[in-house]
Amino acid sequence: MEPVSLQDFVCALDLASLPRVLRVCSGVYFQGSIYEICGNECCLSTGDLIKVTQVCLQKVVCKNPGTGQTMEIAPNFSGHFSPLTGPQSYTTLEELLSAATQRSRKLPIGFISTHRITTESRVVPRDQPLLLEDVEAYHGTYRARCVLDTKTQQFILHLPLSQKGPFWEWQPGAPQPLLQALQDPALSNRLFTCPTLPWQSLILRPQYELQAIMHMRRTIVKIPSTLEVDVEDVTASSQHIHFIQPLLLSEILARGGPFPLPTEILETPGGPPIFVGPWVGSLQKGQRLCIHGLASPPWRILVSTKGRKVPRHFMVSGAYQGKLRRRPREFLTACDLLGALQPGQPLRVVATKDCEGEGVESPGFTSLAVGDRLEVLRSGQAHGAEGQDIDVLVCQRLSDQAEEEAEEEYEEVEDEDQILLPLYFSSSFVEEMSDNRRYSLEDLMAQFSLPCEVKVVAKESSHPADPLPSFPGLRLEEKIMEPFLVVSLDSNPKMCFEIPPRWLDLTVVETKGQPGQPAGRPPVATVEEVTDAFYYTLRRLPAFEKQPPPPRPPKSRGLRGQKKQSGMDKSAQYSRVSELQQAPLLPKPKMKTLPQSAKDSSNTYSKISAHMKGLRYTTKSITEDPDNDEHDYEEILEKFRNTL
């Protein structure tokens, strides 16, 4: 096949013959573009192979051949088009007559001109049908005798054979829908007429979009048929060519098979690793993998270790078969206690930190001491010190004889036995529990809410290197619902692990499976350690964002008043000191100052005593105001003069 333009190839293409393989004979490049503009391919190199799989009509451009004006119509245009002319135009009447003679056409011959024809007697509008009846000799030249029929009158016109056109042979046909007129090869490049359009004749120029596959292109390539490129059909000689199409793991997951699927890594996502394991370093370009399918069950538990200075983080599969035992939970605020309270499940805690009632704006709270036992009852509201209701946690103080009453029916407690803890109250509590049962991970998730603290007492038998039993405690933080793919290395089929395409979306390509691969799915590691960076990425998931932050403690009105009063006292003291510095200093008799000194000392003692009793007081300056001094300086001076 000779190279043709892409537009001509698509217009003459039989859609039933798809797919077709094309070779680009002359490439094209749009400066400033990358690979796609508006989703369409705009860069093709000479020699590229394109496997066309589908052709879609985008729009049809109608062109007026006389004026050059254009208009666009949609593929679902409802008008009908009637062919007016033959498939070819002619520049002169002599060419038209010669072509008709070669086809053994006899006169008369109908034709039209897409331009206006001016004669000595009349002007013929464009697209006006004329009938060539005969050729006559006139003064040594040949002229065509033509008939112009205006439906009301006929006119005879003599046109020279050298009359310039273009001219089209007039062959009116039956009206056809738009798609049928475009798909008929016999109607290609003909003039049409449509009653619903303003022009008497027009040329249809369809524009298509080709969907094709190219080497190393992950997605379907979309190529406009108007791209100025020449192509050659090489389908017959390209049957052995396999187009390599990269895939993402997320696309394989969405496709749902077939599994097992042998693949080869083409590209790994950038960024730091998210897992810590022996298989992480093997995920490099060129590594062959076998994708066995979707991991089951689809949920994972995010786990953090306890009891060490630097915690480690793990993602544990729901298929984990180790045995776990519950550990007492630790709570730092009353809000944490409220979050752990579940309907129908009693929650008893022991205080591990002394806390006085000073600064707590709750009338039902006095103090807590280490060892105090509380039972969390419910949430409520209390009347705060500032006249506003505050959210509190209603707890019952337990006695030492209540240790065996965990399963007894709850009885109403008197108000004096209850403690109201504001939700912002910060202290330290540890859960009081006596549960020695051994749970599986699935049973634990079904019976208790997260977060939950456990200890692994029996490791998983199918995972000899299970690291979880070596830690004194684990905190089960969140349940993650995310699909994983089970993958094994082709070089080590026994190393089987799970990959989340959402966070580790490898680019792979399908390959042929190698013989000797083990049948079935090998055992999968159910515990994977995650990096700190990935752990905090998981903590930003919407499931974690739903957890409300603990309430902030309200600003204390008493503290604000104390600070304000202290500031006022300091300013008053400063003004008194300034007045003393400006007054003249005169000698004072010793006997008169001793009682005042003793008085000041007694005042100071009374102030300190009041402070020791927990009363709020305002510090006063020991120096008295000179205006209120009991000494009479005039009397002293008079006695001094009499002595002299």
From TrEMBL:
Residues 554-563 have a biased composition (Basic residues). Residues 541-612 are annotated as: Disordered. One of its GO terms (biological process) is T cell receptor signaling pathway. Residues 572-581, 596-607 have a biased composition (Polar residues). It comes from the Eukaryota. GO terms for cellular component: cytoplasm; nucleus. InterPro entries: CABIT_dom, THEMIS. Residues 18-237, 274-514 form the CABIT domain. Belongs to the themis family. This is Protein THEMIS2 isoform X5.
